[in-house]
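Standup notes
- DV: blocked on the single-chain target, sequence here:
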Amino acid sequence: MKAATNATSAAIAYLARRDYASQELAAKLRQKGFDDAEITRVIADLVQRRAIDDARYAERFVATHAARGQGPVRIRQALGEAGVAGEHVDAVLEGGPDFVVIARRVRARKFGADLPGTFADKAKQSRFLQYRGFTSEQIRAALRG
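- DV (later): unblocked, structure below
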């Protein structure tokens, strides 16, 4: 039981620094050398106590990364890498921020208020927004102004 207490202590120490998705926290504990049975018990206990909530994690993640100017494609990929279930990601992105407004803001911050006049400028700005994780539809809307 001492090992489980140590795993719980380690998990709580990680959660004290920042919020984690359950799979992300499990990977951190695995790196620390705890076995899978202990990790499963600790994660289940923390979920039951609501110290870990993947839906809450996804909401905070989307809000933070959208505020940084990232689009839904990039956010979805990052949440998938963190192990957040697809239904949580879909729900948060559906009810989340207006990504067209964010794409316009990001484009204006990088390239100025004037819309691109030439095809080369439009392609350059489009590639930038695509890299930031916006969809083609959102990019077209942002470049239309």
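- Follow-up: Residues 107 and 133 are 12 Å apart (CA to CA).
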